[in-house]
Amino acid sequence: MSALQNAMIALIGVFHEHAGEDQKLNKAELKTLLETEFGAMLGNVQDKKVVDDIFSSLDGDGSGSVDFPEFVTMVACITAVTNEMLCKELK
């Protein structure tokens, strides 16, 4: 498998490892995912307001949970910002 295919499988695995039986992330599950997978990269995810803000921005359909497409959008945004930061460091 290619590196990108492996990354896609890893992304799917991380989501399902943290999602509930409904295959969606509630706020507590999202908080655990953020702490486990991103650590301090996203700021203080111990702060309820930080988690509330992230959750609200991800829950695009207002369902009260984060589904896989909403999760992938978050990862894509974080990846794009990380790429920009790394490119600036290389200059």
Describe the structure.
- The chain is mainly alpha-helical.
- The chain contains four helices and no strands.
- The chain is globular.
- The model has no long low-confidence stretch (mean pLDDT 91).
The fraction of residues assigned to DSSP E strands is under 5%
Low-confidence stretches: none
Strand elements, count: 0
N-C termini distance: 32 Å
**Rg, Å, rounded:** 14 Å
Question: What's the arrangement of secondary structure elements?
Answer:
Blueprint: H1 3-18, H2 27-38, H3 48-58, H4 68-90
Features:
mainly alpha; 68% helix; 91 residues; 4 helices; 0% strand
Structure in a nutshell:
This protein is mainly alpha-helical and 91 residues long. It has helices spanning 3-18, 27-38, 48-58, 68-90.
